[in-house]
Amino acid sequence: MASVTSDPINSGHADMVPPVGIRRWGAPQLRDDLRSSLMAEAKDYQLSPTRASGARPDTQPTRRHATEPRQDDTQRQADRQLCPPDEAPRVLWTRSAQCRALAETLGGESALQAGADVAAACIHARAALLVARQLTSFDLCSIAVPHGYDPDTARSIVAAVGGGPHSQLAAAIAHRLSQQLGIPARAVYGHRHSDEQPKAQALLAAITTSLPGLAAHTVQTSSPAAMVQALPAGTLLVVGAPGGTWFQRQFFGRGARIQAKAPGGTIVVKHNPARIYQIMRPPTAFGPHMRVADAAHLSPDRHVIVAQDGQLLGIAPSHSLHRARPDEELQHVMEDPVHLNATEYLDSATELITHHHPNPIPVIDTQTRLIGTVTAADLSTRTTFVE
């Protein structure tokens, strides 16, 4: 459950604690209270035995400089080609050292550079997040853009959230960074009018339910810039891309340029809907000339996927396999396959996937090459930052 701050004045009863802390701050009080709140949380982290060295209870924080020696890039590319999809990294980065630092904080040692063909790299790695130098129209996965990010100087994290599509991602990334770096994080919903508080509380309650341990509160202020200026040194701000609520839009100027930079840097995030490739598994397929009896014996599924030279040819359904002669070839019993494209939106394909349960549905790329399969069971294994 979220860390909460009681406010007897606003709640109306001294013994009531609202689901999420509510504070009505003007600029001077905002500066003092928010600063002291974040610094108190940071102190708690420092005093905790499991965080004395900046570590989480179950792991060491990922803090490293992008210039540190690491495995040769050529060898890493070779390893990636040999790495099956289930073990492929989920966070990719493009070019800059700052992008690399953020990707490695979020994804650990498995984070990889995307290379020239970003789309192909995302599909191969089943990437949930791309860390890039700027926001673009790229929409195969969610994007994070760091401005002044340095994991070694970050002391606390604030996620500015609202009702827009990117708020949950901002909170999820703040929560992940908090775990990896061993520093406190909180989600803050800013609004101008008191009648927005119920909506703010409901949103923050939903966010903290999905992200246990993340603190949250609302801030009533006419100036988000004042809130940012009030942040103590080392505070990292995570904010959704331009759009969404009034609060989120205040962080950007003309041309969607970030104008409210926090003391410890700012990360702008853009949530994109999940795609089929992000949950697919490595495919199991058999050649068209294989005997029915052999394929039925070897296949882990009731339906047999037929492919040749990487190209999807068809599916031999279980009822056809049962009726066929044992020595008959698969090409004589296969049917035109139901299939999904790797870049299809997951939500739009859920009904089809569920309908065919437990049989796998082949996943193809733009050249009709078989690159994976999905089943209804895979719908529960979504590993995007936002579920």
Can you tell me the CATH topology of the largest domain? Rossmann fold
- Report the strand count: 15
Poorly predicted sequence stretches spanning 5 or more consecutive residues: 1-31, 46-89
Characterize the largest beta sheet: strand count, sense, and whether it forms a barrel: 10 strands, mixed
Tally of contiguous helical segments: 12
Average residue pLDDT: 78
Please tell me about this protein's structure.
The protein has helices at residues 8-11, 27-47, 73-82, 97-107, 118-125, 167-181, 197-210, 224-230, 246-249, 292-298, 318-323, 346-355; strands at residues 21-24, 91-93, 112-113, 129-131, 142-147, 156-161, 185-191, 215-220, 235-240, 266-270, 304-308, 311-316, 340-341, 361-364, 370-374. The protein has 387 residues and is of the alpha/beta class. It has three domains: 8-60 and 151-270, Rossmann fold, CATH 3.40.50.620; 73-145; 277-381, CBS-domain, CATH 3.10.580.10. The strands form three sheets. Strands 1-8-7-6-9-10-5-4-2-3 form a ten-stranded mixed sheet, sandwiched between helices. It has a three-stranded mixed sheet with strand order 13-14-15, with no helix packed on it. Helix 2 crosses helix 8 (224-230). The longest helix has 21 residues, at 27-47. It is elongated and about 75 Å long.
